[in-house]
Design brief:
The protein is 41% helix and 15% strand. The chain is an alpha/beta fold and 378 residues long.
Amino acid sequence: MLVRASRPPKVAFVLPGLGAGGSEHIVSLLCNHFAAQGWAISLIVFEEPSVPSYYAYRPEVRIIRLGMKSRRRAAPAGMLAMLRRQRLLSRTLEEVRPELVVSFLTRTNILSLLAARPLGIPVIVSERNNPALQMVGPVWSRLRRMTYPRAAGLITMTQGAMDWFRATMDVKGWVIPNPVPPAALGTDHRAGGRTIGAVGRLVPQKGFDLLLDAFAPVAARIPDWTLTIWGEGPERKALEGQCARLGLTDRVSMPGVTEKPGEWIARTDIFILSSRFEGWGIVVGEAMGAGLPVISFDCQWGPAEMIEHGKSGLLVPNGDAAALGEAIASLCADEARREALGAAARERMAQFGHDQVLAQWQSVVTSLLDRHRVRAGS
């Protein structure tokens, strides 16, 4: 069903900030996709106005920075800050008056639902991680159980995440995977070197400590290979200290976030996902789409939905650093297998193409807009 009213749809996306993460990436794709169709698109973020966006937006997308990003606080102060953010978001929605809100990430989703409900604005919430393993705290967990059933719908990236939510609360939902950007599918990854690459925020979830533990025992067997971890985060000092203890300082680099999205692809020969858990693993899709051979922990959820083990990539038991190390050493020593896995990976990612995934989002959003307009008599 398509929105048939004469006026263009008016949709607001809500997101914590405009950094380099996977949620920020998909929001940029969606905002640009709908804006290109003449829709009135606003993007509301809690970040400060001075913070630049990592991803590019069309000039038609109105970006509203509220200047009140969430920070860790003690319980009473945290609750007051949450209420202030909710009121600020509510005032902003009242000013923008979208027909539909699309919100991303748990705490922001809850605030969006609380802020939009008195205004009668339907809200789609999207979870981008593994709800069974991502800890949001008891207060936010209770608020999620209270508010999510009021949402117009929930979108997850994996069936496992959707099943968890449906077992926990009464929600209507859709499973839509992350797309592989056209730029990744069109990239020739051939770095021409010997670089093992990993990408992600430097936090425990991403398991870069496990990756270092995996690389250390096999590094001497692959002396011409180096490991590069792109990303930034609070675990940098701990990871640098671990590198020193393992004697890997000269073999491992952590250059931070790439200046432009996806620049790491052309500098990588083998891609590793070492996450303890994932919502999907957008970097896996980007790497596979570019024809990189990929090795991943078989973590919940996402990698096994992209990688056909032994054909379009390699899966190793979740958290097994020794098995990951052996898989890395084996693949580094086998150029023919790297080429075969990379070629099959590119073919596999065609199923998660940009146009196909955005069409799924469009179907959900337009059907809910139609329903809202019918109810509103417009």
